Every structure is written in C-alpha cells, then in structure tokens.
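ERR on first pass: missing label on line 2. Operator R.T. fixed the label and resubmitted. Corrected input:
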Amino acid sequence: MISSSLMFLVSRRRLSASAAVRANVGFIGLGNMGAPMAANLLKKAHGVTVFDVNAHAVKQLTAAGAQAASSARGVAASGVDVIVTMLPSSPHARAVYTGENGVLSGVKSGALLIDASTIDPTVSRELALAAAHKGAAFIDAPVSGGVLGASNGTLTFMVGGAKEAFDKAKPILECMGKNVVYCGGPGNGQVVKICNNLVLGISMIGVSEAMNLGVKLGMDAKTLASIFNTSSARCWSSDTYNPVPGVIAGVPSSRNYDGGFGSALMAKDLGLAIAAAHDIKAPLPLGGAALQLYNLLSAHGLGQKDFSVAYQFLAGQHDAKK
Amino acid sequence: MISSSLMFLVSRRRLSASAAVRANVGFIGLGNMGAPMAANLLKKAHGVTVFDVNAHAVKQLTAAGAQAASSARGVAASGVDVIVTMLPSSPHARAVYTGENGVLSGVKSGALLIDASTIDPTVSRELALAAAHKGAAFIDAPVSGGVLGASNGTLTFMVGGAKEAFDKAKPILECMGKNVVYCGGPGNGQVVKICNNLVLGISMIGVSEAMNLGVKLGMDAKTLASIFNTSSARCWSSDTYNPVPGVIAGVPSSRNYDGGFGSALMAKDLGLAIAAAHDIKAPLPLGGAALQLYNLLSAHGLGQKDFSVAYQFLAGQHDAKK
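pass 2 clean. output:
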C-alpha cells in the first residue's frame, strides 16, 4: 500500500511547528486561483517567493512585495520553509515537483510542500512519496470556493497527508481559506474533493431534470423546491444553490448563471473521478453520464457559466444563436 | 390547459365540510398498502365499505368491521361520502374509475374521491376532469412511507386538486398518515411524488458511486460521509439514509438492505417520471440511466431489497450465486 508506507516515512521526521505563521513561503502557479491566494499570503506578512511561467503574473506579485525566482527549483532553493503550488492538472504537478528544474531538485530537508491543485489522487500519492525520499513533507490540499473564495480568503481546503504535516500547514492555509478539513493520509484530500464533486455534479443534474419536469408539468418552481427541501429529495443543489432562476436569491441561477463554478471545471473534476475510478474498476454509471452532459454544456458555449446552467440547457431555454 | 379548466369546474361546487371526520368512506384496492390504510380508517371509527378483486383481502377487512361491496360501482352506489383508492398503476386506476362497473358509473354528486395510487399525473388529471363532470371532486394523493408507514398510520400524502377538496380530505388522510402536503391543482400530487423520487433515485446512485469510489481509494466511509454532510455533496441519501453499511444505524443499509423502499418500486416511480417526461419531451439523461440501474438490481434478484442496495451492487459485494 502506497499510503501506509508513505505515512510511515513521513511520520519519522519531526516537522518544526515554530515555522508556522511567520514562515517564508514559496508559491508556484499564479493563475486565476493562485495569484489571489499568493496575494493573501503576502497580506498576512509572510515572506513570499513566487514563480510562474507567465512573467506578467509574477510582476503583479512582486509589485505587491513578493520575491521572484526563475524556476520551481529556484523557489525551493531560496530557503523557504513552505512551498504552496496551485497548478491546472496532474501533468503540470508532476513536472513542477519532479521535473528537471522542479521543486524536489532543490528542496531542503524538513520543508513542507502543500499542493492545492486538484489532480489525480494517485499522482498526489506519488508526489508525497517522492517528497518523503527528499526529507520533505507533502500534503495534498485541493480547494473549493472558486476565484471569489481565493480573492476573499474564504476557500475550503481538503487536506490529505501526515497529521503533523497537516497541523503545521493549517496556519498557512488559514491565511488563504476559512475551512481546513483533515481527510486522512496522503491523497485523501484529492479523494474527498473528487468524490464530493461527483455527488454534486450528479445531484445538480438530478435536481435540474426534476425541476424542469415539474415546472413543465405545471408546478410552481418555488413550491416544488420547498417540498423537495423537507423531503427525501433534499440536497445542497436544491436548498442552497437551486438551479431555477428566482427560487433562491443571490445564487448564480438568479444572475444569468454568471460567477460560481463553471461547467468546464465541473467536467474537469468529473474527468478526474472517472479516471481514478477506471484505474480501480469502480463503476460510475451516473458520473459518466453527468460528465457527458457538462461537456455538452461546453460544446454549447456554456463552459464558463455556472454548472447549474444545466437546468437552463435541459429546459431548452438557452439558444446559442441569440 | 387541462388543469386550469378543471380547477374552474371543481371550484364551482361547494363541498360539505361537515362530512369530514365521521364520513362513510369507501375503500378500493386492499393490497399491501391499501389493506393497512383501510384498517386504520376503520380504527378511527369511520364506516368503511370495501372492494377488491382479491376475496381474501376483502374478508380480512370485513372481519375487522368493514362492509363489502361487489364492485367499484357498488362502493360508489352504497352512498359513501368519500372514496379512497389505492391501486398499482395507471391502467388499474382508469379501469376502477371510468370502467363499466367503475366508481364514476355509480358516484353521487358531491362525493369526494381520493386516489392514493402513484400513477401518471396526466391520468390523474383526466380522472379529475371525468369526476368533475359527474359532480364529484377528485384529488390525487400519492404517498411516501411504504408498508410500514401504511401500518403505523405515518404516511406522507402529496395532494393535488382544488383547495376546498384538499381541506375536506385532510382529516380523512390524517387517519392514515402524519403529513398531508398541498401541492396545488389536479395532478400536482403525482408530479411532486415522481419529481421527488426522480431526485432521490438519482442522488442515491450518485452517493453510492462516490462512497464506493472513496472507500476503494482508501477513505474511511464515516469520515467521507461526514465531510459530504457539511459540504456541497450534502443530501438526504448521504446524511439520513446512507447506503454504506455501518455509517448510520437503523437504516436499511445497516440491516442487509431489508425493509425500506424496494429497488423495483423505485424503478416503477422512475418509469412514471420518464413516461411523463417523454410525453412533453423533457430530457432526463440521468433519470433514464438511473432507471436502467434499478432494473439491473431487479435482474440480479435485488428488486425487493431497499434501493440503497445500489451501493452494494456497485461495490461488487453482492453475489447472487451465494
């Protein structure tokens, strides 16, 4: 078992708790999510050394007070105690950690590596093992909350890794987020994230199908939702984030599906769930069908709209030509 | 619009409120659900006249104090103020109401007809219209709560029809159930029931897929469920009726999926949703896939097991040969 041997390796090394709040932090991956997260770290008075292939993104952070390094290795070799990475996919994470100029080629023993990317849990476990061989602790800490949560410092982090690494990471993560949830050993943060979004992606389509059917059969949408919400159809997709415009104020469905969590991002997370499930032959009949529907939304120009736009699409109210 | 013209017809007739609690009630359909429902009516001191094609079922009710009629028409012609029907499907309901010896051939003007069957909402609306032409009020009042709820008098009724007919029916329904929910005009009780169970049938499979994936990827089931239950995967199928044995005490998954709501019954309700949706060309991509999975459960001998057995089946833990 990768996870148990890994936990053993990591638990043999004591991580310094004193480095927590005033640590020098490296930050790699300054995209839509990473840039505001790094900016929030800077605001909390940590020293921050950044790297991104996008020079413009780096310049914005250095203008705000960050140091710049010329590679992921450069960040690691700059002597930082903690490195946070926020990357788009598994191949990017592999390259940034284990590539020629990657973090692990320059990391110091005792460093804490926090990968906030959403990637394949198997890759997270590989990286945790590779980090442990360099004497560094690695935790996977994928987020929910989107760009708004990253800007406002209200992200939720789902963390997998050794408990003492989690304890050390918590004050760092709390500079960027509101909720930091320990999910167990290495990779488990990713597992929780993809499993959560698997349920969410499915239930949003289920609620959308049922609300559309009910409304088309003559029900008032608010009445139907209110009965769902006190019965066995009750779920977050109905009672907190209802996809029908006007049922709940302030959610994306009530502002033309703008903001929120894009259909294309939901498709990405479902793709990760399906890939992980395929590796272990776990069947996802509805997860697979849900992915196809979110891809269909992207094909119809709705990839950047909140994923609850599934309702509008099923209802036939979206016309890409208009 | 069928529903608005129907509401108009019904609202023109005043229904007598005085008939409510001490009414003479007819009861047609003494199956697993109907028999205990009729018995509960008898216990509350209503005069009850029954009919069923199954003579044995009739005999058990007459032994408990009911009168017997020789047909549905016979029940209607016996002078009862209220008739309750509990039938297996739309064709049965059509035959019992509009057939040669049906209720409508013998019903008196001003009678209240309560159909507690779960059937196609379009058929409910047809029957409500046909009843209105005879001067009778018809409400659709499908239930949730199963055989146990029918025996204990704790059913939930979802009621569609004119509001004054609902008000008159409420004390009758409260002899057999705990919750009586008004859903709007004719057919809306059926619409709410099939839409609720559409969400439920989908979300149970979604939770089952995600719990199986998470557990197979190394998560503790209780930890995973507890994180779902405070995040966007939160739903009744996870926090109240979790399909993984041992996560919640006292639910069917923790007693070998016995009792509860059978997979075959869930398939029946999804079939109704899909038929109703097909008539109006409302797409149900996940509802359709969910129906196929519940039918697969029946094909594997799990039709009488609670529908949360989907988890066990996806996990490959059920072996029909053993």
